Amino acid sequence: MTTPDALPALLAALHDAVGPAGLVTDPDQVRSHLTDWRGAYSGEAAAVVRPASTDEVAAVVRLCRGAGVGVVPQGGNTGLCGGAVPDASGRQVVLSLTRMRRIRELDPANQTITVEAGVVLQSVQEAAAAADRLFPLSLGAEGSCTIGGNLATNAGGTAVLRYGTMRDLVLGLEVVLADGRTWHGLRGLRKDNTGYDLKHLFVGAEGTLGIITAAVLKLFPAVRSRATAWVALPGPAAAVELIEVVRALAGDRLTGFEVMSRQSVEFVLAHAAGARDPFAEAHPWYALVELSDTLPDAGLGEVVETALGEAFERDLALDAVIASGSAQVAALWALREGISEAQNREGPSLKHDVTVPVSRIPAFVEQTDRALAAAVPGIRVVAYGHVGDGNLHYNLSKPADSDDAAFRARADELARVVYDSTVSFAGSISAEHGVGVAKRDLLTDYEDPLELELMRGVKALLDPAGLMNPGKVLPAG
Q: Which residue numbers delimit the FAD-binding PCMH-type domain (predicted)?
């Protein structure tokens, strides 16, 4: 553990390592690194450093290790679980990777792109498109989140159904380890069985085992046609059946399948400028279904029409609209992607990112809704998500006209209601947002003790001093 007297020497050494452009001292600039984007988590830091190369990252880690100072890696700071925010001690260093934004190589023949950790997700999408390729990860924060953060949290997004999570999209990594050495694992190989697949240790580890500085990512053929439909549903059970109807007809051309409760959509209609209800009347649930193909004229509209026809025959759909152009596609997706921000306008938003087997989603929703209504009469459940892979964002808003502070004070109690229900259906309390500090201590109750023991063993091996993003992911014990 470092002492306050050692901090000035560390700051001077960090200045020498990263130069004046790499050491952030302006209070306004520092402040943006100390609080997450929602304002839910805040801390203090001894310094904020912005290295411009892997060698500089390694130098910073070595200096911090020598001083006994914890390092908190940070990308776009768009996370929801506090995993990229320093603690309140003021004795940790925030290591921002946002200056590391080079696209090192794009290899069309190998269908790969090699990028540094600070590259914004949207920039990777655009670089792939310029080469007539697709990088399929897509999520609401894609204009500001970074590849390093996407990898650190094993981000999912709206296309997991077809392309998988970041763990499925990465082939190789470059990682600065806790002792300052660099693992050069930037291999663009789809087959490599030479021992353990080490990259998967760092994907989803939230910077607790090392700092990802670059990655080789998979690319795919560009999408040249798509069909998007907005479908009104009587409930989650209809959504699960509709997935199977569409999948049977479309196969892997089914790219996205999102569901939203009426409460979710009502918040967007109330708070998002220009948002319009596609239907004349309200319905209990909705699905946003998207098919895509590499062929320019793949007949996807006809596939969707056939699927919807069967859905109406089986009383799965109450109403439906197929988008007629790019503007309408964007408008439909805006209804889905605007939910989180719209909910924040309604007061405290208690967010829970859970996953259960797809087949058990209807029973999970029914049971959890009932338990929450009993605990807080009038509570507004904002349930939506990537039901095709079992992932629901099961968020809670206070009853209308009730007290913010009183509702926020019950956050832990209500989280237990959601998580107890989740595990009763063989689910996970963290689907794609990570653990951070928000769910760290909950792992003691919801994770297998042997799994925690193994994870602590990996942490002790790779970061024996406990200086890589200390206090995140693993509970004390």
A: 41-222
